[in-house]
Write a structure and sequence with these properties.
By secondary structure, the protein is mainly α. Helix content is about 55%, strand content about 10%. A two-stranded parallel sheet has the order 1-2. Helix 2 packs across helix 3.
Length: about 100
């Protein structure tokens, strides 16, 4: 019963069908106008609202990150990435006036 939102790059009919069949996940990508499967007006509205929120949060996280992340291991990279996301969440929860 879950819905996974995606942008135009995730338009893949076989992936959509497999996700629904195997896991019950509905992939809802933004559709190009020339495709066979089109979203309803309600789906386009939901996509616009939710993707705007996602893009806003993502740009807020990226603004807290440095241009380069130097890490020697993959786990070190993930740890630094986690710290930047936590810093973003703390800055939103406890804004400095």
């Amino acid at each position: 019963g879950s819905i996974l939102l995606g942008d135009k790059a995730y338009t893949n009919y076989s992936l959509e069908d497999d996700l629904v069949e195997m896991a019950g996940i509905t992939l809802l990508p933004k559709r190009r106008r020339n495709l066979k499967r089109q979203n309803t007006k309600a789906q386009d509205f939901i996509l616009a609202k939710k993707r705007n929120l996602i893009e806003t949060v993502f740009s807020g996280i990226v603004s807290k990150m440095p241009r380069y992340i130097r890490a020697k291991t993959e786990s070190g990279f993930y740890l630094k990435l986690l710290r930047f996301i936590l810093a973003y969440l703390v800055s939103k929860a406890l804004p400095v006036a």
